[in-house]
Amino acid sequence: MLPLTFPLHRQILLKRRIWSSCCRRLAAMSSLLIHQPHYSWLKELGLTEDNDGVYNGTWGGRGEVVTSYCPANNLPIARVRQATLEEYNETVIKAKEAWQVWADVPAPKRGEIVRQIGDALRKKISVLGHLVSLEMGKILVEGVGEVQEYVDICDYAVGLSRIVGGPILPSERPGHALIEQWNPVGLVGIITAFNFPVAVYGWNNALALICGDVCLWKGAPTTSLTSVAVTKIIAQVLEDNNLPGAICSLTCGGADIGNAIAKDESVDLVSFTGSTNVGKQVALKVQERFGRNLLELGGNNAIIVFEDADLNLVTPSVLFAAVGTAGQRCTTARRLFLHESIHDDIVQKLSKAYAQVRIGDPWESDTLCGPLHTKQSVEMFLSAIEQAKCEGGTVVCGGKIIDRSGNFVEPTIMTGLAHDSPIVHKETFAPILYIIKFKTEAEAFAWNNEVKQGLSSSIFTKDLGRIFRWLGPKGSDCGIVNVNIPTSGAEIGGAFGGEKHTGGGRESGSDSWKHYMRRSTW
Ligand code: NAD
């Protein structure tokens, strides 16, 4: 009740304001996708309209409330309360306490917990894949495939939990044993990008856990619902095993929380996946405190097609690598070098194939290309096309935004640019492919290597000598060097990562586990 002394007209005005604000809130509530019957499956992941974005054994979130939007229609899905810096600090303390427990669990038993996490993810693979598709915008098979990658790395890590260790070396001292022992680093801060909101965390989390580390995750703010849903699945496993939840902590947030992780001496390893620009800032901060980091940054990946290649392989491979995930993979093919003798033929075949790509809602089974993640991504796409035109490029197909709700653009092919044009050397996170003619092998290899980034690369050829030159010291300088397959995609068994401005880190298989441990020689 308003005091009677309050002037009547002001009372009416105020009541109207309160009423309209209530209406707005009600409208906002009912317009959330989570309230629509069609999206009731979100509740299977424990999500509600307002979700806590902090987990350290208990759930919280006293920071900014962030709404997650669906890139296919820009409608709000649900909200997540982000972490404050105070909550971040509280979480680090709890994670460090949890490490005291976790480090004492024998490695194969840690593997057993990771096996249970993998099984829990298997049970939710479809519903979690749908959430990835809804919130990130990638097509459903890719969303489900991403959860599968987490499941696979769990399987891999379970086996690894029984074999990680160092050698016993011959000692020059009589009666002495020379042993290398690996111990966990402690707390791993994991900062991830929007485009792989499940798999990248999974790659880090499964390996870090079997190594005896605890994890603190900060995903991209635009995919906070996925971070919360994944953490709920893991938290249940930890709880069922009477283990502290802070072993797998979560602090949703933006640059403020990422920056806190980078600067924090309590974080023993910072694993950062994201753009080269932000990665550099993070790396410098970590370096300043002599911390450890593992960087997985931007790529600018090329495919080279020689005149002797099996040309039937080329069109589907390039299409998959350049258009898949709407050009938003770190391994997306952005540059295509074609031998001059086959250039026109391949450009024509690719244009035909591009015209048949079904663009639409990512969860529809016949869609091949979904939307870009945000409205800003669409702006970046348009500005790259304009810059490429200014630098002499011609649009062969695509080049425009699609007139419908959501962040849809046409997959684009451009020709006529010089191999060293500024735009060709830039990673634009969108489906734009620059096609460039070459004459000689030496020229094509040099162009592959001349960009700052060094993530993925492919050649298409049947010439064995050339394949070995490509794989050898004067061949591709990238972390992923492919032959007769496209640039995108990765297998968890091999080490994944890239050189130069891609950061030099290696995640996933092979001996990547060594990043998550410290070595002592005795
Ligand atoms: P981004 O660099 O904008 O953000 C990545 C993460 O960093 C997010 O969680 C973000 O909130 C956080 N962040 C932002 N500012 C920060 C700061 N000042 N300090 C600490 N953290 C901060 O990247 P993005 O747009 O989310 O992802 C796309 C980029 O990620 C592309 O460049 C892509 O190539 C790269 N990527 C690389 C790999 C790889 O394995 N090499 C994998 C996936 C994505």
UniProtKB/TrEMBL annotation:
CDD domains: ALDH_F7_AASADH. Residues 64-519 form the Aldehyde dehydrogenase domain. Keywords: NAD, Oxidoreductase. InterPro entries: Ald_DH/histidinol_DH, Ald_DH_C, Ald_DH_CS_GLU, Ald_DH_N, Aldehyde_DH_dom, ALDH7A1-like. Pfam families: Aldedh (PF00171). Gene3D superfamilies: Aldehyde Dehydrogenase, Chain A, domain 1 (3.40.605.10), Aldehyde Dehydrogenase, Chain A, domain 2 (3.40.309.10). It comes from the Eukaryota. Its EC number is 1.2.1.3. Residues 497-522 are annotated as: Disordered. Residues 498-514 have a biased composition (Basic and acidic residues). The active site is at E296. Transmembrane segments: none annotated. Belongs to the aldehyde dehydrogenase family. Homotetramer. This is aldehyde dehydrogenase (NAD(+)). It comes from Staurois parvus.
